[in-house]
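Sample 3 of the quickstart, ligand magnesium ion:
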Amino acid sequence: MVEHPDVFPLPGLPGEVTIYEVGPRDGLQAEKQIVDTRTKIEFIRRLRQAGLTAIEATSFVSPRWVPQLADANQVLAGIGAPDGYRHPVLVPNQKGMDRALEAGATEIAVFVSATERFAKENLATTVDGAIEMAAPVVRQAAEAGIPVRGYVSMCFGDPWEGRVPLGQVVSVTRRLADLGVRTISLGDTIGVGTPGHVRALLESLGAAGIGMERLALHFHDTYGGALANVLSGLQCGVSEYDSSAGGIGGCQFARSATGNLATEDLVWMLTGLGIRTGVDLDRLIQISGWMAGKLGRPAPSRVVAALYHDEVDEPLF
Ligand code: HMG
Ligand code: MG
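Result:
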């Protein structure tokens, strides 16, 4: 049985990639069945043991909008802040920032939309309104020395508005960059992007003065294109990718947003390309198998489906 790919590098790709794990936040946020707080904390602890160092832990959004993450305080307290790990939390507005700071957050992520309709569906505001909501939060974080990541959603298509012009994405990304957001993650919220589209967007951003070192890519795998899109991103020089363990996830505020690109599928391809990630694939597969048991259905990840052995799901710690 082949449990790891052979290594055949392609020229011109980065030697190392940062994997930004979103399973505990993007992966769980749309789960209807409330996952208990202890399981969420254990999930994050196990992900750390698998070598993931940047793990988005939860979000301080309205618990009325996202009941699953109403325990953000307890999750953050439960996971601690060990050296060498980043645990950003999603913050939509000042109220979320106040809650996050009180809970001891050490890194935050703000989020805006490239489209008007999703700004309304996801944040009850407009594109401008979302940026205005993020601005004081970003300023406060800068004053407190807290790093800020930013997401732009619906960069490749929108379930209501359809095509999203490149210029629209560039303009919103530019505004986030001008606020001082360190890394901006371009979200293919509904998974409709294709590799040429990824390149066209990255080239437009580059032409607008936004360097690849400031960008990350966040693919949902609805149409199975996420890995091809990562390869396109790598060829353009982007070296940070968001993914969720097991490929769990979605967004209840956007029709047809299914799971994120699975971290295992990403690690498999990067390993085969000889690109370092620091992730222990075998361990991660076991963790996703364990989490799938908690969620009551198989993990969407192809690699987990191929390689998970539930007979060896002994406690890892
Ligand atoms: P709103 O209903 O307009 O809020 O929602 P409001 O300002 O009118 O306040 C209403 C009530 O909510 C008030 O309480 C506020 O205090 C409270 P009341 O006075 O009625 O008792 N409230 C809050 N409570 C706790 N935490 C807060 C908070 N804010 C207000 N932060 C709001 C506006 C922004 C709050 C809402 O739209 C919201 O929470 N949206 C977040 C939705 C979300 O989490 N979506 C998923 C994450 S984004 C995503 O998945 C995309 C991404 O993965 C990238 C990609 O794939 O593209 C990042
Ligand atoms: Mg997402």
